[in-house]
Predict the structure of Transcriptional regulator.
Amino acid sequence: MTAETSQTLDRGLRVLKLLADTDHGLTVTELSNKLGVNRTVVYRLLATLEQHALVRRDLGGRARVGLGVLRLGRQVHPLVREAALPALRSLAEDIGATAHLTLVDGAEALAVAVVEPTWTDYHVAYRAGFRHPLDRGAAGRAILAARQSVLTEPGYTLTHGELEAGASGAAAPLIGVTGVEGSVGVVMLSDSVPERVGPRVVDAAREVADALR
C-alpha cells in the first residue's frame, strides 16, 4: 500500500476477488483468515458490498458474489471489443477471411467482435452475438485447449465443417489476460486452412492480449 491508495477499498476489492475464485462462497472466518484482518473488519466490508449488491450472503452465512457485478460486467464487452478491433482488422485484411474475437459466456463461446475483409469476392458471414458450444468450432476448442494446460505462449486450433458446412476455422487463445477468457480466430470458405494462417492467428491473439493488459 502507498500513501495514494485506500486500504479499505483495497480490502473490499480483495474480498470480491476471493469470492469470484470460489464456487461455494466463503464464511466471515475464512475471509478473515485469507485477508489477515479481524472478523469485525470483514463484517463491515461485506455489509458495504451488500448495500451495492456486489455481495450476497446465503442462509448459511456464506458470502458470494452478488448480481450487482453483472451491471458492471455489461460494459466489459464493448471495452474488450474496442481494444481488439485494430488487430482483428489487420488479421482479416492479411488473411482475406472473417476475423473474430470470442469470449466465454457460461458454457458457450460468444463472438463479441467480428471484422470482415474488404477486398475479397466472398467470405463467411459471421456476426457478433453468434453463440456456439465451447467444444465445437476452432474458437471454443482453442479456449478449451488453453484450459487443459498451463501455457505461456498460445498454440492454435484448426477445425473444418463443425459450425458451417464447407467452412474452416483457425483460432488461438488469449493468454495472460486477467479476467478474460477467449480466443482470436478466422473463419473461411475452404476445405483446409493454409499453413501460414495458424501462426498469423497466434500473432493476432498476442496483439489483442497485449492491448487488454
About this structure: Residues 16 and 94 are 41 Å apart (CA to CA).
